């Protein structure tokens, strides 16, 4: 059961990364289409369109950065409970073997601990995903309002 739980959390992490990558590609494509249009910014004639467009661009950029944050690997969350810190620090073979032997003593506990760490990573990824989508939506809404202003 613990193995299935860990596998399920790992699959969910992969799905979150895929969602973020697709959204990031779409957001960058929309930005590329808008920039390649060749149109200029609205004139500064005292209307509220300029500040709205600037706010929209800032929200869109923040959304892009948040989606990038989803895709980036999580190396701090639970690094002491996994082998990640040991592997990245080029730990000795003896140290790695000692960690593996310790995990073999209570396999179910170790698997549940790994699932807990991966669950925290998954929660962080979905938090950034929700914030990124919200920021992109707000940026799009502000851009539309600047055109109607």
From TrEMBL:
Subcellular location, principal: membrane
Keyword presence, Metal-binding: no
Localization in the cell: Cell membrane
Residue span, Pycsar effector protein domain: 2-144
Pfam families: PycTM
Name by which UniProt lists this protein: DUF5706 domain-containing protein
Organism whose genome encodes this protein: Streptomyces chengmaiensis
Keyword set, alphabetical order: Antiviral defense, Cell membrane, Membrane, Nucleotide-binding, Transmembrane, Transmembrane helix
Transmembrane segments: 20-36, 48-72, 128-146
